[in-house]
Specification:
By secondary structure, this protein is mostly beta strands. It folds into two domains: about 10-165, Membrane-bound Lytic Murein Transglycosylase D, Chain A (Roll); about 210-310, Distorted Sandwich (Glucose Permease (Domain IIA)). Helix content is about 10%, strand content about 25%. It has helices at about 80-90, 95-100, 130-140, 145-150, and strands at about 10-15, 20-25, 40-45, 70-75, 115, 120-125, 160-165, 170-175, 180, 210-215, 220-225, 230-235, 240-245, 255-260, 265-270, 275, 280-285, 290, 300-310. It has a seven-stranded antiparallel sheet, with no helix packed on it. A four-stranded antiparallel sheet has the order 1-2-6-7. A three-stranded antiparallel sheet has the order 3-4-5. A hairpin with a 5-residue loop joins β14 and β15. α1 crosses α2 (about 95-100). The protein is globular. The chain starts with 11 loop residues before the first strand and ends in a 6-residue tail after the last strand.
Length: about 325
């Protein structure tokens, strides 16, 4: 669906220190397709554009929660450039590259579909003696994601370099002097749709699967296999498949599926071993959409399950 509205930029969300700033990486409102470079069609899911993700919860940043967390899809038109597309969405070029497994050598093609994910991160200015590994450890980030997001050809850094740590966390000093690691749950204060969603895995808890991590990331939970890769992943609610990525890192999600639902929410199923649905397909609640796996940024066989726009009941 193509919608038209005004574009506003998110800007910086606040300061976290002399060399750290918490940043929102997405625009607040939908885009007017008549005003954007290349006049490309913009598929806005659920009649709303992609909004800025909040920064790490519990930091000293002045954070405002977005009113929507929908994933947006852009179809490349003739003459579009990556920088122009990034500018439309008020994001960095690397934000677009990261979510679509693009490098500086990739050339955009007319008709190519780009996925713009709500991503927040910490902007860090490199000081003497720091490495990608030490920075990743400092902000609870992932080395591979930092290298890919910042389009680094190697892991060496120079003093003064500015890099982004996707979904990074900044510790906070309390009145007692203890540093507390803040959680990075975003989108969990959404409305509740009791009974609308079912658990995205079949079988019995404790026998076939177990929940290994509660709410984290973007309103997601992790459910791990106690057996093989073949645990079926089920559509949590009926809807239309808008993303079905069968290859690539994809911002750490690996192979993943996103379903748009009639209540204007989305569910996301990541780290799949395989999927059996395609973009545009209508699926029913409980229908098998793929199998549990460990693709992308995954340390074991599990599904990372997000609900965007509603509370995650699991």
């Amino acid at each position: 669906m193509v919608t038209k509205s005004k574009l506003a930029s998110a800007g910086l969300l606040g300061s976290l220190g002399s060399n750290v700033q918490q940043i929102g990486l997405q625009p607040i409102f939908a885009l007017d397709s008549k005003k954007i470079a290349g006049n490309g069609d913009i598929s806005i899911v659920g009649n709303s554009a992609l909004l800025p993700d909040s920064g790490p919860m519990g930091t000293v940043a002045d954070i405002e929660e977005p009113t929507s967390d929908q994933i947006s899809i852009y179809t490349v038109r003739s003459g579009d450039t990556l920088s122009e597309i990034a500018q439309m969405y008020d994001v960095s070029v690397n934000t677009v590259r990261w979510a679509n497994d693009l490098t500086s050598k990739n050339v955009l093609k007319e008709g190519q579909v780009l996925i713009i994910l709500p991503v927040s991160g910490i902007r860090h200015t490199v000081v003497k003696g720091e490495t990608v590994e030490s920075i990743a450890k400092k902000y609870q980030g992932d080395v591979k994601e930092i290298v890919q997001y910042n389009n680094l050809t190697e892991k060496t850094l120079a003093v003064g370099d500015v890099i982004i740590i996707p979904d990074g966390e900044e510790a906070v000093q309390t009145s007692t002097g203890i540093y507390v690691k803040p959680g990075k749950i975003r989108g969990s204060d959404a409305p509740s749709y009791t009974g609308y969603y079912i658990r995205p895995v079949g079988g019995n808890e404790g026998k076939n699967w177990v929940k290994t991590q509660g709410l984290h990331g973007y309103n997601g939970v992790d459910i791990a296999s106690l057996g093989s890769l073949n645990i079926p992943i089920l559509a949590s609610a009926s809807g239309q498949v808008i993303i079905s990525k069968s290859v690539g890192w994809n911002g750490g999600y690996g192979k993943y599926v996103v379903i748009q639902h009639s209540n204007n929410t989305q569910t996301l199923y990541a780290h799949l071993n395989s999927q059996v649905v395609s973009v545009g397909q209508q699926v029913e609640q409980g229908q098998v959409i793929g199998n549990m796996g460990r693709t992308g940024n995954s340390s074991g066989v599990h599904v990372h399950f997000e609900i965007r726009g509603a509370k995650n009941p699991f």
